[in-house]
Amino acid sequence: MKAIYPGSFDPITFGHLDIIERASKIFSEVYIVVMENKRKNYTFSLEERIDMIKQCTKHIENVKIDFFKGLLIDYVKQNNIEVVIRGLRAVTDFEYELQMAMANKEMCPEADTIFLMTDKKFSFISSSLVKEVAYFGGNISRWVPEYVEKKLIEKLKSYS
Ligand code: PNS
User: Fold this and answer.
1) Domain that holds residue 93
2) pTM for this structure?
3) Which listed residue, of 22, 29, 74, 125, carries a Cα 20 to 30 Å from 160's Cα?
4) Cis preceding-peptide flag for 11 (omega within 30 of 0)
């Protein structure tokens, strides 16, 4: 069964990787698809985000990395995907996730959203938190792979 793990991945964190690794054991193929969230302004370009995902998922065989500028459900239909995976960190994620899952279900009844609980080690981290800590010089090595840490430090230097 094919599943999609859509997101902004700005940048990918150990929280995302935990969900990807677990999803890859449940589904035959996991599409990691970088999509646009209209509520966000991105730090990394689409190409940079894709590159970081590729570098950090080399050890997982059944993932396919892609991007899509459009509705998630259109990508799902075009690729005959049956399951949308989203990670849930805390109750605060729930309302937004429920809203998206329900809208997607109404627009595309063929697919279901399945939530995986993020490991408690990563339950409080987000790409935004990682970026803020890095911006003020904090150590982010426990939250993102080394490759991402380097790219984020380079990016922050390019701002100054
Ligand atoms: O990592 P994020 O930012 O929480 O991911 C949100 C994302 C990109 C999955 C969501 O914004 C999305 O699906 N965008 C594509 C456009 C779309 O289908 N929007 C309607 C969702 S109901």
Assistant:
1) 2-159
2) 0.97
3) 125
4) yes
- Tally of structural domains, the chain: 1
Q: CA distances (Å), 133 to each of 54, 56, 99, 137, 138, in order?
A: 24, 21, 29, 6, 5
Query: Ligand 1 in contact with 43 (CB < 6 A)?
Result: no
CB 21 within 8 A of CB 116: no
3-state secondary structure at position 40: coil
Q: For residue 160, what pLDDT band results from cuts at 50, 70 and 90? A: confident
- Element (DSSP H or E) covering residue 32: strand 29-35
Q: For atom 16 of ligand 1, which residue has the closest CA?
A: 71
Instruction: Render pLDDT for 122-149 as a digit per residue (tens, 0 to 9).
Output: 999 999 999 999 999 999 999 999 999 9
The fraction of the chain above a pLDDT of 70, given in percent, is 100
Which residue in 86, 89, 131, 151 is the catalytic one? 89
